[in-house]
## 1
Amino acid sequence: MSYTIKLGMFGAWRGSSYVDLIAAEDPSVIQIIAVCDKQAKQLDNVKGLEGARLFSDFDEFLSYGKENGMNAVFLANYFHQHAPYAIKCMEAGMDVVSECTSASTLKECVELVRCVERTGRKYMIAENYPFMTLNLEMKRIIDGGTLGTFLYAEGEYNHSGTIETMKYLTPYKYHWRAWMPRTYYVTHAMGPLMYMTNSMPKYVSARAAHSERLAAFRDYRPNDDGMARMFCEMDNGMAASFTGCTAQASDYSRYRVVGDLGSVEQSGYTNDKVRLYYEDYTKPEGVDELVQYITPDLSAWGEKAEKALNAGHGGGDYWIVQNMIDYFANGKTPFFDVYKGVAMSATAILGWRSCLNHGENFRIPDFSNEEERKAVENDDLTPFPDDNGEGATLPPSTMYGKYDK
Ligand SMILES: NC(=O)c1ccc[n+]([C@@H]2O[C@H](COP(=O)([O-])OP(=O)(O)OC[C@H]3O[C@@H](n4cnc5c(N)ncnc54)[C@H](O)[C@@H]3O)[C@@H](O)[C@H]2O)c1
């Protein structure tokens, strides 16, 4: 029997960038039936959306959904509040696709995983950078198996900007973007490496560096580090190093996977191509050049190629919608399920404690194991204050002192 995804969109700022992509799909497969945002100006972004009811209150949105067959919710609400809303939606019988990050504390990681297991609902994270065209090309090459044993992988995500841009993105004093330590937005740098090499993090240590440029803006945005870099031991034996979200003077994000036979990378300086390198003594049969610059061949994608090329974030947003359809309608579990989601969140959370504690090494819990969940089920340390500026238990920047265990 055919299944129609009747989607509710929660959060209409980032959420609105998915509206056209979803509207371009067959409505008998996926359609948006309701949108919720407490800000009228954000709801204005979607007011032309045919057939969708608009709400400013989440509870009203959810009750309308329950009565009208809403079977999935896209969470594009505040970064640090995804887990509690994901749980409410799954308890109400709906599947969830969540913007990054999955959870903002270890306690929430545990609650989220337990909820998925208890309710049997489907949960995926909308981490889109692994599905950028060039990152998919890197994965295709890596899957060919010619790089040998993975030794090292590197990911760097940069979102610097003027003070005006930061003000625009941080509309009020206690907005999450003003308090988010540099490790927390980890999925764009880390997710592609996990996807390309099919790996999970086991241990993390990290460092952050302070930015004088951002310090001048401290009264408005107290998170004035310019970058954090995490270093992980992965479950495939590889070492991986990646940033959270950096504010560095660099014109690109970049990804690199290095094996003992070859290495592959893409960044601003590979000019819309992927760079593949073999040594003279490791190159596969039929390969003449040591260095190749490869333009992705999208012919296998058929009519999807043009749609992906026109979608946001290097095509990544298009493939998130396809993953939702494959999962919610056709039962194909995506790579970024709840366990991968919370593993990334926990890397960011523990990475921050490491930055505050001179690079101390932390083990990432295995959230599929109840004993390991129990050990952290009450760990609710957070750098995020509530709307009144209360409740933060960790500093947002390394300039405010170190974490004392
Ligand atoms: N994957 C990507 O490439 C990408 C890009 C941009 C943003 N994001 C993610 O999307 C999420 C949202 O970010 P954003 O850029 O839209 O900024 P934002 O977090 O300021 O916007 C969230 C929106 O949700 C609404 N909202 C929050 N709580 C609500 C509630 N209880 N009731 C009603 N409305 C509520 C707000 O009014 C706001 O319009 C974040 O998690 C962010 O990390 C991801």
## 2
Amino acid sequence: MEVDSRIRIDLHCHLVPGVDDGCQTVEQSLACIRQWRAAGYLGSVCTPHMGSGWYPENTPDYIAPRVEQLQEHLDDAGIDYQLWCSGEVRLGEHIVSWLREHGVPTLGASRWVLVDFFGRQWPSCCDDGIDFLLDHGYEVLLAHPERLNLPEREWSETMECLARRGVRFQGNLNCVGGGEGPIAQDRALRWLSEERYFVLASDTHGPDSVAGRMQGLKTAVEHVGADYVTQLVSSRPRAIVEAGGGR
Ligand SMILES: [Fe+2]
């Protein structure tokens, strides 16, 4: 059975031009989206980096009009593609105060929040951020767990602990395809086999980054079959964005 290509939605990408380390120009954004549209995707949730000192200007209020502008460019270009607003929230020391001050960037109008982490140790402030979200009724989706640079045993224990607390996991197509190295790919393929991912997403950062993600999609289908991949890139992402009112 082929993956139903009509209903794919990407929950994680850096398509908003000039706000982070993703696309830098509208032309780059449109070039990425044309490729995803041709691969059967109907929309993307825009998730610029937020919540750390890395791109301090990025807040839900700052990003929303920029997503609207990009949507207008798409409409003007005749590209049938839906964008939603969100952010990729970097877990860290000041994340709870940041969320209180700027608001919680959900995936579209849903209650889902995409978070990520970068570091060699999982500090307690990450758990504080997750607790804050769970306690306030949000669903937490951890981006690319397979890519976290923790020592293997700490990585396994941390992921088990997060799963027990109800955190869900977003696999990164680039990791599945091998673009982030063998450790990340081995973890990703194992987790696919064990059905531990809730969704798969692209984490697209620019036109040159799309091919590796497409390879990941192909690898995923080869590894676990089209039915499960359909859940990961179609049914579940669509249910998340439609929970906020649909297209
Ligand atoms: Fe990302």
